[in-house]
Amino acid sequence: MRYWLMGSILFIVALLQVTLVPFLVVWGVKPNIVLVLISVIALLMGSKAGLTAGIMGGAFLDLLSGQYLGLFTVSLAVTGYLVGTVEQKVFKDYLLVPLGGAFVASLLQTAMEYGLLRVAGVPVGLLEAVLDVALPFSVYNALWGPILFAQSRKFRLQQRLTMKAN
Question: What's the pTM value of the predicted model, to 2 decimals?
Answer without folding.
Answer: 0.88
